[in-house]
Amino acid sequence: MNYRHAYHAGNFADVLKHAVLVGLIESLKQKSKPFALLDTHAGSARYSLTSVEAMKTREFASGIQPLLGMTQLPAALHVYLNLVRAFNAGSGQTLQTYPGSPLIGAALMRANDRLVACELQPEEARTLKIEFRDDARVACHQRDGYEAMRALLPPRERRGLVLIDPPFEAQLEEFASIEVALREAHQRWPTGLYAVWYPIKLRQDAEAWYRRLATLPFARILVGELCLHEPNSALRLSGCGMALLNPPYRFEHVLGEILPVLARALQQSRYGSHDWRWLRHA
Ligand SMILES: C[S@@+](CC[C@H](N)C(=O)[O-])C[C@H]1O[C@@H](n2cnc3c(N)ncnc32)[C@H](O)[C@@H]1O
Question: What is the pTM of this model?
């Protein structure tokens, strides 16, 4: 396990993932009944954008940074950017901190909602546990996220979201692991909401992934993708996507609002693209 999210925090992939995550949590909050959030690959929660790692790649400079000055945004982006601004209050125009998925989840959750954050890498897991040591709503585990899905689903609330955001170090194997995990999760919790982040390098690989996803037994499967370059290189991360299984009602409209704004703000080449589509729609 060589992957460290500190090099990538706040990049365009985080921006898409976290904007969608915020939209999903906000829609769960439309009902008063508590929900559970299972973050299977949580990372260390809080990232310094002035760290050696972040400064080495400066990926946040073409991700979250250009978005921060924007106004008149769709609701989910507005909430997301305000949250990032709040974590940077007092640091002027300089971005110092970027909140990872568990911190975003905990910041938006209500008193009776619950977060279970899993992280396998020991140092990241230690930092994660320290971040939430005083928050009784949050349980942090150093454990395999896929194993946690088998052990913890369905949540006792019978409402909530599973965020699956692996590092994809093992590329094709990771896609296969996700597929197996989702198939098994469907047996335990067929009506759960699942959100999966995935990389896009070659168009044909993304299409093959969509064909595999479409064979899963979930009633509704929606994907949204954001590509900054034409996906024609096996080496470059040209884009990324979010696959949503059992998304909230009319969530395609949220994607339809977010994606063009992000595509415009993060544009890097004229071959960029964005799209959403149903892979299954009951
Ligand atoms: C892309 S990062 C997560 C970023 C985080 N979800 C966020 O949005 O802020 C992936 C994380 O998964 C961890 N990881 C790798 N394999 C894992 C596994 N099998 N189970 C749980 N965590 C794992 C890595 O150490 C890394 O911190």
Answer: 0.98
